[in-house]
Amino acid sequence: METDGRVAVITGAARGIGRGHALEFARNGYRVVVNDIGAAVDGTGSSDGPAGAVVEEIRALGGEAIANGDDVADWSGAQHLIASTVEHFGGLDVLVNNAGILRDRMLVNMTEQEWDAVIHVHLRGTFAPMHHAAQYWRDRFKAGEPVAASVVNTTSSSGIYGNPGQSNYGAAKAGIAAMTIISAMELGRYGVTVNAVAPAALTRMTENLMPDRPAVPEGQFDAAAPDNIAPLVVWLGGLSAREVTGRVFNVRGGTISVAEGWSAGPGVEHGARWTVDELDDVVPELVAKAAPNATQDGRRPAG
Fold first, then answer.
1. How confident is the prediction for the chain on average, in pLDDT?
2. Among 124, 273, 281, 291, which is most exposed with the fewest C-beta within 10 angstroms?
3. CA dihedral 160, 166, 168, 171 (to 10 degrees)
4. Residue 169 falls in the annotated catalytic set
């Protein structure tokens, strides 16, 4: 895949899946901006050390990279991330929105702060960098310059299929999936593709979900390794993917599938305003004909 020194920004790139993205982009010849504030899983605290360590790994591979500590959920922070990238590398070709936190809680116990924090980092932290990057690409396009840019967002099975205890996280991730589809419609005219991945991997954010997971023997393929997500993300950011946009992909280990979103199922036309009593028969019949919702693994129950 030809990269021609393309420039990629990866948010939340100091650890886990984001780190895998940064290293894989570098291996494929990209110049990389490793964005991360170095916070804990719940979003508290900060440190510039982890991002710097990834930069050193990339440089050890012979690649070019810089660390960036801007808060992508902050409007001016996201603006500075994009502007400083363009200033340092002379352009921007790929934006990967990966930053996120967890504040899991059942709905009846969730606090206002736990809701707001997760929505802020995931949803606003995806929108703000996209907004500023899109403005940059639109301006280039209007100036008559060629644009072949890509955005890859990070959604989750919690958002597109559902997962108890994650109404905040799932709502944010569902919003990101919707924003991906809508922004793909809007930005295609400027030469920008927008896609999303729903990854499954063992990271700081998920290790407590499988505390008894047996170790994978050395030399065997680890389907839960966070680095497995990166090849698809790098491909989606590349020139081979110019005709793919507005799609969401499930990816885990060596498995990739296309997530098929909401679509209109069985329906009925009455030709007049319904009465409440009439719906006693109509709605249960429609639901009985409709395909069941997918389970947490993205598959519809048999039958």
1. 91
2. 273
3. 10
4. yes
Mean pLDDT of 93-115: 93
Q: What is the pLDDT of residue 101?
A: 87
Active-site pick, 30, 157, 173, 183: 173
CA pair distance 57, 36, nearest whole angstrom: 15
Q: Is 142 a catalytic residue?
A: no
| Rounded Cα gap, residues 271 and 259, in angstroms | 34
What pLDDT shows up at residue 44? Answer: 45
Q: How far is it, in rounded angstroms, from Cα 170 to Cα 241?
A: 27
Q: What are phi and psi of 7, to 5 degrees?
A: -115, 130
Q: Is 156 among the residues known to form the active site?
A: yes
Q: How far is CA 211 from the centre of its chain?
A: 25
Of 77, 71, 18, which is closest to residue 45 (Cα–Cα)? Answer: 71
Q: Is there a contact between 199 and 229 (Cβ–Cβ < 8 Å)?
A: yes
Domains (range + CATH), the chain? 7-259 (3.40.50.720)
